Amino acid sequence: MLNLEANTTYNVYIQSICSDNESMLTEVVTFTTAAPVVIPQLLNNLSDLNIFSGNIEDLIPSVYAFEYDLTTPLFTDYSHKQRLIALPSGETMQYVDNGLPAFPDNTVIAKTFYYFNDERDETLGKRIMETRVLIKQSGAWLTGNYKWNAAQTEATLDTDGSVVAYSYVDNSGDTKNLNYKIPSNTDCFQCHSNNEQILPLGPKLRSMHFNNQLQDFIDNNYLSNLTDPSSVSVLPDWTNRDDYSLMERTRAYFDVNCAHCHQPGGTCDLISSLDFRYETPFDNTDIYTFRYTILARTQNYNNGYSMPYTGTTIIHDEGYDLIEEFVDSL
């Protein structure tokens, strides 16, 4: 059969034709074609990667992809995010330690950023801004950002970066006006590189170790070489005051929002002695020495001075309150 649609159910009859003789039609035979596989290439149109099923704007993951979430996520101007991983057929992530697992070649990691038009009522629709894609090829990661069109029907590869003006209503009923910045490939390299090698940032096992995610990964053959998820440490949820101390919550916040640049091998390694990694002993971080500088660079937004340099255009009020409380406690 030719010209069949992927992931579609068909009802057919079968008939044998031999010379001038034709058999009776069989009973209805039903079959469903396979879903299109995810394409591990930075193609011009996001839809051609087959990360999503059906209408792309519905953000329904392909059957070959799975969603994941993080205990403490990166702040990006209050946007919502959908995080997906698509592994090549028959391959798994391999447990190494509490950090990143070993991903096989042709892994695709996608993160989609969006806002609800009215945060008080999600049924009023959303505006998808961008989808950031990481693809592993021949042992190295490639980055690509896809900018969604105004009709929300497609996203195209944007290597130079863009600014998208958008207004939405927040949970308090206030109208928020944004100039949302889609980073360029250079911006992506700044945050994702360590010792000149591009790496994923979010999907560390310690950051995904909650809500039974690691066990689900094992049960679904997404993660191998790990039998006991409890042996993996947990990066604290910075909003959880009941279970974690102020020190733990703030260090987790710094780890996710700052440590990709401020650590050995990061892009700020040669210009700053700060080391924001959660596992670094506090006395070795230089946080105390630069505590007031940290406050100054997070309390207001000044392009080129505020931290982080990339990925935000406004202050994270709740994050700053956490940092201020932490600095005052030192």
Structural class: alpha+beta
Strand content: 25-35%
Q: How many DSSP E strands?
A: 18
Give the uncertain stretches in residue-range form. Answer: none
* Alpha carbon gap, first and last residue: 71 Å
User: Tell me, what's the shape?
Assistant: globular
Overall average pLDDT: 92
Please write the string of helix (H) and strand (E) elements.
EEEEEEEEEEEEEEEHEEHEHHH
Please give the largest β-sheet.
6 strands, antiparallel
Helix content: 10-25%
Oligomer: single chain
Radius of gyration of CA atoms, rounded to a whole number:
23 Å
Strands of the widest sheet, in order across it, are 7-8-10-11-12-13
Number of helices: 5
What does this structure look like?
With 330 residues, this protein is of the alpha+beta class. The chain has two domains: 36-235, no CATH class; 238-330, no CATH class. It is built from five helices and 18 strands. It has helices at residues 185-192, 213-219, 246-257, 291-298, 317-329, and strands spanning 9-12, 17-18, 21-22, 29-32, 52-53, 60-61, 65-67, 80-86, 93-94, 108-116, 126-137, 140-148, 155-157, 162-169, 175-182, 193-194, 197-198, 223-224. The strands form seven sheets. It has a six-stranded antiparallel beta sheet, with helices on one face. Strands 1-4 form a two-stranded antiparallel ribbon. Strands 2-3 form a two-stranded antiparallel ribbon. Strand 5 and strand 6 (60-61) form a beta hairpin. Helix 3 (246-257) crosses helix 5 and helix 4 (291-298) runs antiparallel to helix 5. The radius of gyration is 23 Å and the shape is globular. The termini are far apart. The model has no long low-confidence stretch (mean pLDDT 92).
